[in-house]
User: Fold this.
Amino acid sequence: MSKRIKVTLDPKSIDAAIAELKKLKQEITGKADNLVNSMANRAVEVAQSGYDTAPCDDAERDAKVHMDEAYEGKLKATVIARGTSVLFMEYGTGVRYPDDHPERVDGVLGRGEYGQGRGKQPNGWYYPATPNGNGTYKLRKDGTEDQRYMHTYGVPASACLYKAKKTVINEFETLARRTYK
Assistant:
């Protein structure tokens, strides 16, 4: 975006240039806000899609991703994922999968430490069966399935928020060009 403002050294010309600069400042601020908004919306879209398809032992595939906006002189957007299954899907569970989330954060339990530490059990663990469960039914001694319980070794880290962040970083130039055209 390039713009030339001609000004001569007389009061009317200077006042007109100042008015034009104020107008440009508003325009640029508006476009910056639009860019922040489009980046956050793209992150919400990518993260929600990831949570919607991530492996999850929990019946409650309840992850909901949204954006919170705050205006403190400039627009700030925060992408937030909420739900009981978010940490399980984001960081993974159990001993079978590597602890491979690229950005483990303080306060998030380590691999196998969720749910009373059952994920550390080398033979997996059982949980109450659910319609959307990701495990296999517990086998009775006679070989039939006990559909009250499911067996799991956990799930791999899906890193949905991390992948959303990486997507926005990779698409930044495209998003900026679209905003500032």
